[in-house]
Amino acid sequence: MTTRTARKCKRLLDTKASYTMPNRFVPPNDDVCEVLQQRLYDLIDLASHAKQVHWTVQGREFLALHEFFDKVNAELNDHADIVAERIAALGGQVKGTIQAAAKDTHLPDYPLNIASTTNHIEAFSSSIFQLKILVRASVKTVAELNDNCSADLLSELSRKIDEISWMVGAQMEPKSREAT
Ligand SMILES: [Fe+2]
Q1: Angle between helices 30-56 and 117-144 (to 10 degrees)
Q2: What residues does 116 pair with on adjacent strands?
Q3: 93-103, pLDDT tens digit by residue?
Q4: How far out from the chain centre does Cα 172 lie?
Q5: 29-179 falls under which CATH superfamily?
Q6: How far is the CA of 97 from the centre of ligand 1 (A)?
Q7: How far is the CA of 71 from the centre of ligand 1 (A)?
Q8: What is the mean pLDDT of residues 12-40?
Q9: What would the mean pLDDT of 110-130 be, rounded to a whole number?
Q10: How far, in Å, is the centroid of ligand 1 from the Cα of 55?
Protein backbone atom coordinates (compact mmCIF):
# COMPACT_ATOMS: atom_id res chain seq x y z
CA MET A 1 0.00 0.00 0.00
CA THR A 2 1.41 3.40 -0.98
CA THR A 3 1.75 6.07 1.64
CA ARG A 4 -0.94 8.10 -0.14
CA THR A 5 -3.38 5.17 -0.16
CA ALA A 6 -2.62 4.43 3.47
CA ARG A 7 -3.36 8.05 4.36
CA LYS A 8 -6.64 7.89 2.44
CA CYS A 9 -7.65 4.67 4.21
CA LYS A 10 -6.85 6.18 7.58
CA ARG A 11 -8.95 9.24 6.71
CA LEU A 12 -11.89 7.02 5.75
CA LEU A 13 -11.57 4.97 8.92
CA ASP A 14 -11.41 8.12 11.03
CA THR A 15 -14.48 9.50 9.25
CA LYS A 16 -16.38 6.28 9.83
CA ALA A 17 -15.40 6.26 13.50
CA SER A 18 -16.91 9.68 14.00
CA TYR A 19 -20.30 8.39 12.78
CA THR A 20 -20.49 5.08 14.61
CA MET A 21 -21.14 6.59 18.06
CA PRO A 22 -23.23 9.69 17.37
CA ASN A 23 -24.50 10.01 20.92
CA ARG A 24 -20.97 10.54 22.17
CA PHE A 25 -20.87 13.84 20.31
CA VAL A 26 -24.43 15.02 20.92
CA PRO A 27 -25.21 16.34 24.39
CA PRO A 28 -28.46 14.76 25.64
CA ASN A 29 -31.48 16.99 25.98
CA ASP A 30 -32.04 16.23 29.65
CA ASP A 31 -35.39 18.00 29.93
CA VAL A 32 -36.93 16.14 26.97
CA CYS A 33 -35.43 12.84 28.15
CA GLU A 34 -36.94 13.38 31.60
CA VAL A 35 -40.43 13.95 30.16
CA LEU A 36 -40.11 10.84 27.98
CA GLN A 37 -38.78 8.84 30.93
CA GLN A 38 -41.80 9.75 33.06
CA ARG A 39 -44.16 8.54 30.32
CA LEU A 40 -42.07 5.39 29.90
CA TYR A 41 -42.67 4.53 33.58
CA ASP A 42 -46.41 5.01 33.04
CA LEU A 43 -46.49 2.92 29.86
CA ILE A 44 -44.64 0.02 31.50
CA ASP A 45 -47.08 0.21 34.41
CA LEU A 46 -50.19 0.43 32.21
CA ALA A 47 -49.01 -2.54 30.11
CA SER A 48 -48.90 -4.56 33.34
CA HIS A 49 -52.47 -3.44 34.18
CA ALA A 50 -53.59 -4.82 30.81
CA LYS A 51 -51.96 -8.16 31.59
CA GLN A 52 -53.62 -8.21 34.98
CA VAL A 53 -57.02 -7.95 33.24
CA HIS A 54 -55.95 -10.58 30.68
CA TRP A 55 -55.11 -13.01 33.47
CA THR A 56 -57.90 -12.39 35.95
CA VAL A 57 -61.06 -11.24 34.15
CA GLN A 58 -64.06 -13.55 34.56
CA GLY A 59 -67.58 -13.64 33.20
CA ARG A 60 -69.53 -14.11 30.00
CA GLU A 61 -67.19 -11.86 28.02
CA PHE A 62 -64.09 -13.66 29.24
CA LEU A 63 -62.72 -14.81 25.90
CA ALA A 64 -63.18 -11.48 24.12
CA LEU A 65 -61.67 -9.48 26.98
CA HIS A 66 -58.88 -11.99 27.57
CA GLU A 67 -57.79 -11.59 23.96
CA PHE A 68 -58.45 -7.86 23.75
CA PHE A 69 -56.31 -7.01 26.78
CA ASP A 70 -53.47 -9.17 25.51
CA LYS A 71 -53.44 -7.00 22.37
CA VAL A 72 -53.59 -3.84 24.49
CA ASN A 73 -50.58 -5.08 26.44
CA ALA A 74 -48.66 -5.69 23.20
CA GLU A 75 -49.52 -2.24 21.82
CA LEU A 76 -48.47 -0.52 25.03
CA ASN A 77 -45.21 -2.46 25.05
CA ASP A 78 -44.59 -1.39 21.43
CA HIS A 79 -45.06 2.25 22.41
CA ALA A 80 -42.87 1.83 25.50
CA ASP A 81 -40.18 0.53 23.14
CA ILE A 82 -40.55 3.58 20.87
CA VAL A 83 -40.34 6.01 23.80
CA ALA A 84 -37.34 4.19 25.33
CA GLU A 85 -35.48 4.20 22.02
CA ARG A 86 -36.17 7.91 21.59
CA ILE A 87 -34.55 8.53 24.98
CA ALA A 88 -31.56 6.47 23.87
CA ALA A 89 -31.39 8.29 20.53
CA LEU A 90 -31.29 11.60 22.39
CA GLY A 91 -28.33 10.35 24.40
CA GLY A 92 -30.28 9.80 27.62
CA GLN A 93 -30.08 6.89 30.04
CA VAL A 94 -33.15 4.67 29.71
CA LYS A 95 -34.62 3.34 32.96
CA GLY A 96 -36.90 0.56 31.78
CA THR A 97 -37.20 -2.01 34.56
CA ILE A 98 -40.44 -2.93 36.26
CA GLN A 99 -38.84 -1.94 39.57
CA ALA A 100 -38.04 1.57 38.32
CA ALA A 101 -41.53 1.95 36.84
CA ALA A 102 -43.24 0.73 40.03
CA LYS A 103 -41.34 3.33 42.05
CA ASP A 104 -42.12 6.32 39.84
CA THR A 105 -45.34 5.57 37.96
CA HIS A 106 -48.03 8.27 37.99
CA LEU A 107 -50.88 5.78 37.62
CA PRO A 108 -53.16 4.59 40.41
CA ASP A 109 -52.48 1.18 41.97
CA TYR A 110 -54.34 -1.47 40.02
CA PRO A 111 -56.66 -3.48 42.35
CA LEU A 112 -55.54 -7.09 42.61
CA ASN A 113 -58.78 -8.45 44.05
CA ILE A 114 -61.24 -7.78 41.19
CA ALA A 115 -62.49 -10.21 38.56
CA SER A 116 -65.72 -8.97 37.01
CA THR A 117 -65.81 -7.28 33.63
CA THR A 118 -67.34 -4.10 35.04
CA ASN A 119 -64.76 -3.71 37.78
CA HIS A 120 -61.87 -4.37 35.41
CA ILE A 121 -63.19 -1.97 32.78
CA GLU A 122 -63.65 0.74 35.39
CA ALA A 123 -60.22 0.19 36.93
CA PHE A 124 -58.45 0.10 33.58
CA SER A 125 -60.39 3.15 32.36
CA SER A 126 -59.21 5.05 35.41
CA SER A 127 -55.57 4.12 34.69
CA ILE A 128 -55.71 4.98 31.01
CA PHE A 129 -57.54 8.25 31.67
CA GLN A 130 -54.68 9.34 33.92
CA LEU A 131 -52.14 8.49 31.22
CA LYS A 132 -54.23 10.29 28.59
CA ILE A 133 -53.98 13.56 30.55
CA LEU A 134 -50.26 13.13 31.20
CA VAL A 135 -49.38 12.33 27.59
CA ARG A 136 -51.31 15.35 26.28
CA ALA A 137 -49.47 17.60 28.74
CA SER A 138 -46.17 16.01 27.73
CA VAL A 139 -46.79 16.77 24.03
CA LYS A 140 -47.11 20.44 24.95
CA THR A 141 -44.07 20.43 27.25
CA VAL A 142 -41.80 18.78 24.70
CA ALA A 143 -42.99 21.10 21.91
CA GLU A 144 -42.12 24.06 24.14
CA LEU A 145 -38.67 22.53 24.54
CA ASN A 146 -38.39 22.72 20.71
CA ASP A 147 -38.16 18.97 20.15
CA ASN A 148 -40.76 18.51 17.43
CA CYS A 149 -39.78 14.90 16.76
CA SER A 150 -40.42 13.90 20.38
CA ALA A 151 -43.65 15.94 20.37
CA ASP A 152 -44.72 14.06 17.23
CA LEU A 153 -43.86 10.72 18.85
CA LEU A 154 -45.92 11.63 21.92
CA SER A 155 -48.81 12.83 19.72
CA GLU A 156 -48.85 9.42 18.08
CA LEU A 157 -48.90 7.84 21.54
CA SER A 158 -51.75 10.16 22.51
CA ARG A 159 -53.79 8.99 19.50
CA LYS A 160 -53.17 5.36 20.45
CA ILE A 161 -54.17 6.01 24.08
CA ASP A 162 -57.39 7.68 22.88
CA GLU A 163 -58.16 4.68 20.68
CA ILE A 164 -57.54 2.13 23.44
CA SER A 165 -59.52 4.25 25.88
CA TRP A 166 -62.48 4.35 23.49
CA MET A 167 -62.32 0.59 22.89
CA VAL A 168 -62.14 -0.16 26.61
CA GLY A 169 -65.04 2.19 27.42
CA ALA A 170 -67.15 0.74 24.62
CA GLN A 171 -67.01 -2.65 26.35
CA MET A 172 -68.84 -1.37 29.39
CA GLU A 173 -72.45 -2.42 29.61
CA PRO A 174 -74.60 0.51 28.36
CA LYS A 175 -76.43 0.63 31.71
CA SER A 176 -73.16 1.11 33.56
CA ARG A 177 -72.00 3.84 31.14
CA GLU A 178 -75.29 5.70 31.38
CA ALA A 179 -75.00 5.66 35.16
CA THR A 180 -71.62 7.46 35.13
FE1 LIG B 1 -51.76 -15.07 27.77
Answers
A1: 170
A2: 58
A3: 999 999 999 99
A4: 25
A5: Ferritin, core subunit, four-helix bundle (1.20.1260.10)
A6: 21
A7: 10
A8: 70
A9: 96
A10: 7
